[in-house]
Amino acid sequence: MLDSHQHFWKVERGDYGWLTPQLGSIYRDFLPGDLIREMKRVGIARTILVQAAETEAETDFLLEIAANADFVAGVVGWIDMEADDFTARLARYRQNPKFIGLRPMLQGLADDAYILRPKVINSLKAVAESGLPFDILTFTRHLPHVTAALKQVPNLEAVVDHISKPDIANGVLDPWRAYIEEVAGFPNVYCKVSGMVTEATSDWALGDFQPYVDHVARCFGPERLMFGSDWPVCTMAASYAEVANLARTLLSSHFGPNELRLIFEENAARFYGV
């Protein structure tokens, strides 16, 4: 299996603005040695390593890890999408075969419509032309802006991270459902079944997630879904094994073994070109 979404970080690097002592158990270093045993227990052979800081220095740090950790299939990194020399920076990173995707941290930006800024749209067009996958990290409120951007850059190969973080804790489905359906209308947009446990209550139960997974299963189908653990963020609410088993159980009510193989390995491998 291929985990389409996990992180590593080293706290002393100092560029993780969101990572504070208040987050408790995840306010420490997480590196390859911490994950290997968890992967083996679940039967996952490879991972996609995703950025967690808005710096190119962190992207370089992750690429160095990927060069030395065989199980890391590639890195989804960060580049300043408003930089005047964005295209040149993109071309430089594209020379590294382990650089397989790009992600701005849209969910944490002050401007919910950041993705619609003219410089960002131009950068998105350059990303689309290069064929590089693009990760969409959003809350529900960002999705209308994402849809508007996709209309301007319809050939962008993109994936919605964490089913766009709906308010699972309070069981809120709308307007998330309509927004997700609209985004799914773009045939080259995928969705990661990931990041759900940290959006639920601390005493979550399987049924809390069912209507959300049911909806993305209907909207995206087995060819455009991919499993991601969001480790180690997920450990605030569940173990690595619990997250994998949760996704497998929920998706098994919709799909058979061949389709689950797509979701748990082949879709992410094809999307990221690994």
UniProtKB/TrEMBL annotation:
Gene3D superfamilies: Metal-dependent hydrolases. Pfam families: Amidohydro_2. Residues 3-273 form the Amidohydrolase-related domain. It comes from the Bacteria. InterPro entries: Amidohydro-rel, Metal_Hydrolase, Metallo-dep_Lactonases. PANTHER family: AMIDOHYDROLASE, AMIDOHYDROLASE-RELATED DOMAIN-CONTAINING PROTEIN. Belongs to the metallo-dependent hydrolases superfamily. This is Amidohydrolase family protein. It comes from Rhizobium lemnae. The lineage of its organism: Bacteria, Pseudomonadati, Pseudomonadota, Alphaproteobacteria, Hyphomicrobiales.
